[in-house]
Every structure is written in structure tokens, then in C-alpha cells.
Amino acid sequence: MRGLIVALLVVLTAPTGAAAGAFNPPAGCSGYLTVQSRSCRVSNYYTCTQDAPGDQWRADFDQQGLFFVSRVDAEGQWVESLDINPMVRQTLDAGAEDPASFTELLGGLDSFSFNLTRDNGERSSVRGFDRLTGRSVQIDGITLQETEFEYSETDREGNLLRRSRGVEYIHPEWRIFFAGPSEWDGGDGYLPMDGSPVEFIFPDEPGFFSNQPVFECDAILSNYSKGSANGN
Q: Which residues, if any, are the signal sequence (predicted)?
């Protein structure tokens, strides 16, 4: 799969004949959704014929360009991902103690415990849960179910690497998560974040497969200018 994700990265970042501010999915892949979110982020979702049924990709862009690409399976497991700067590939280890399960979450609660390996030598363990709150929200005409979550990621010696807690949203038919108000701790204490979706864009609609975020970007730039911006 490393060859595929590198090929995807090359296609996503290389100049194309597409209009400025847009990109085409790689050969064999088809886009189906673009989400403009808070915190100056746009995400493009697509599927590829060479993948297992139910697998889907997401490419995230901020004002500096592509910064994250990921693939999840039909149960929402983090199969593989690529952080762009610095470039680090992460993969899900086989034999999870308690695999993440979108199906179980639709029943009300899903716990998970699994291991990840990064090609920078980092190996970690992730444990946590997702739980339906029983509430629904409507964003840009799309009804989503609200969840609450908490997880922690530790190294193999048990030292905390990062953790997060808060609210997310799911679409049962699309079988994907969307960010919501949350807190993230990379070792210096919890910091608030909110990457909630604002606009859903479908094929043939203006802005589909854009690589230019539009919401709250001025605020992000202001934070950068003050030296107080926080990474993903």
C-alpha cells in the first residue's frame, strides 16, 4: 500500500489541467463529497477501485495546501494515513485487541484498543470510546448524529503521546466521522479545537473538490501572525 499512497500524494500535489483551486482524484478513484469546515479546513472524500469495498480516502487542505491524507475502512478503522509536513506514514497494526467498529457505534457505544506504527520509528497504542449522545444536528441541510468521544495514545512503554476528547458527528449511511468541538492534548495540556463542518458540497456543485478552505481563515492567519497557532 505504500506505493499507492505515495502515488496518491504525487497526483494530489502535482500541477494539473484542472482549474486553479481544484484537484482531481487519482486514476481509478472517484470523488463524492467536499466538506468546508471551521478552522480554515477543506476535506475531499473519494473512493478507489483498487481498495477493499467500503474503504474511503480523505484529503485535507489548509491555506498552505495539502497537509493530511488518510484511508479508513467500512468500520471507520484508521487503516493508513500520511502527514505531509513532516512526511510521516502511519499504518494500523494487524490483530487489534478491540477493533474500532462503526457498526457497534450505531448501536450506541463502541470501545476500541489497537496499535499503530509510523515509518519514523514511532509505535503506539490507542484506547478509547465513541458513544452516541442521542442528539441529532442539521448542518447545511444534512442530518448528522452527535457522538462524544475520548481517546489516548501512548508509546509501548505507556508514556502519553497525545489524547483528545469532545464531540464529533457521524453520517450513518456515509459511515464517516466529522469533527466537532473538542480538546486536544499533545503533552502541554488540553487546548480547545473546533473543526465542525459548515458546508457540504456534492459533485456538479460549485466548490466541489476545491483545495481552498474558506471559513475562519482570517482568524487562523491572525493567530499565526501572533505566533500562537496550534497544529492539527
A: 1-19
User: How far is 122 from 153, CA to CA, in rounded Å?
Assistant: 11
12: alpha, beta or left, given left = phi > 0 and alpha = psi -120 to 50? alpha
In a domain, 68, yes or no: yes
**For 87-129, how does the pLDDT look when each residue is reduced to its tens digit (9 = 90+)?**
999 999 999 999 999 999 999 999 999 999 999 999 999 999 9
Question: How far apart, in whole angstroms, are the C-alpha atoms of residue 67 and residue 57?
Answer: 14
Q: Which of 160, 170, 166, 165 is nearest to 139 (CA)?
A: 170
Task: Give kind and range of the element (H or E) at residue 4.
Answer: helix 2-13
Pair 213, 36: CB distance under 8 Å: yes
Q: Are 97 and 73 in contact (CB under 8 A)?
A: no
Contacts of 227 (CB under 8 A, 6+ apart): none
Residues 180 and 101: their CA atoms lie apart, in Å, by 20
Residue 191 is part of which domain span?
2-8+28-225
Residues of the chain with confidence (pLDDT) below 50? 1-3, 15-19, 221-232
User: What pLDDT was estimated at residue 230?
Assistant: 37
Question: Distance from first CA to last CA of the chain, Å, rounded?
Answer: 24
DSSP state of 93: P
- As for how many domains the chain has, the answer is 1
Question: What pLDDT is attached to residue 185?
Answer: 97
Q: How far apart are CA 76 and CA 99, in angstroms?
A: 10
Note whether residue 15 is domain-resident: no
